Amino acid sequence: MVYPIYIYGSSVLRSEAEPVTQEYPNLEQLVADMFETMYASDGVGLAAPQIGKSLRLFVVDVSPFASDDPAAGGFRRVFVNPEIYEVSDEEVLMGEGCLSLPGLHEEVYRPERIRIRYFDEHFTPHDEELDGWRARAVQHEYDHIDGVVFTDHLSPLRRTLIRNKLAAMARGKYSAAYRTKLTR
Question: What is the reported pTM?
């Protein structure tokens, strides 16, 4: 099932998400639906709040970046109740966009490397060190489960320059090639 993507201005995008329990009904189906929604929207990551579910859950597939970053090849993961517990001092500036902020792309600094603990959809524990596109996508989606969007990482001047675009988006003035939803 393809879900609509919740757009900037929707309150679910600004709330800290709740942990997922092992008793959560149909978790594997939700994960499958999230991947289907992400692919249908031409994304490389999708967090549960972006489909209106306040859960500490996201999916990532950065395989499209394998030509730039060989480690990205085949990197398709489900992150349940993740915890980033270590970040590198070195930060890298890279362009980012977001399905919840259609048409907006900005350069964002993020740590080059991270260490993350998480469960997959079967509640098998994992602990990985990630860098490059893998670290970038995971940090972007991790922000969503904490109620943060990528524009929050911009300088105050840059945020001021895009304020009108964000306000228009929150009022429903945007264009997207995928199903969307805007709630208050």
Answer: 0.97
Chain centroid to Cα 147, Å, comes to: 11
Taking a C-beta distance cutoff of 8 angstroms, is the pair 176, 5 a contact?
A: yes
For residue 170, which amino acid is it?
Answer: A
- Tell me the catalytic residues: 141
**pLDDT 10s digits, 135-160:** 999 999 999 999 999 999 999 999 99
Beta strands in 70-120 (DSSP E): 76-87, 91-97, 105-111, 113-119
Q: Distance between CA 88 and CA 112 in Å, rounded?
A: 6
Closest to 58 measured CA to CA, from 40, 45, 42, 39: 45
**How would you class 33 by CB atoms within 10 Å of its CB: exposed for 0-12, middle for 13-18, buried for 19 or more?**
middle
